[in-house]
Amino acid sequence: MIPIRPISHTDETVTLRRADVERMLLAIEEAGDAAALRDAADRENGKGEGASADDLPVESVERLLAGEHPVRIWREHRRWTMQDLAERAGVALREVAAIEAHAEPGSLTACRRLATALAVTVDDLLPPEDPPEQG
């Protein structure tokens, strides 16, 4: 990298050549782009939330439609253990297990915490509604 040399400076100001300022701005932009690419790669690898980590594969949707609990589906999609989810959400492991097993619906507070940890909406964690009956 070419060093930036001030043209002049005082205690309050620094005067730079336009080319130096443009190089600095470009370096800042490139650093931001590199960070965004790293974040996207982390999400793709299941290390974070968002991007394609928010899209369930067909197999997971089929499991949802078959009645498996959405909390389990999203937790496994994130590649987390029940303990991981419980710790990230601040919800007791016993409660996470009971929710996933359909043994209890879980409190609204627990559902909100689970949704936040999983980076989904509370609605995403509700089991699918039964389709309306054909009459």
TrEMBL record:
Superkingdom, taxonomy of origin: Bacteria
Location of the HTH cro/C1-type domain: 71-125
Organism of origin: Methylobacterium isbiliense
Gene3D superfamilies: lambda repressor-like DNA-binding domains (1.10.260.40)
SMART domains in alphabetical order: HTH_XRE
Protein name according to UniProt: HTH cro/C1-type domain-containing protein
SUPFAM superfamilies reported in the protein's UniProt record: lambda repressor-like DNA-binding domains
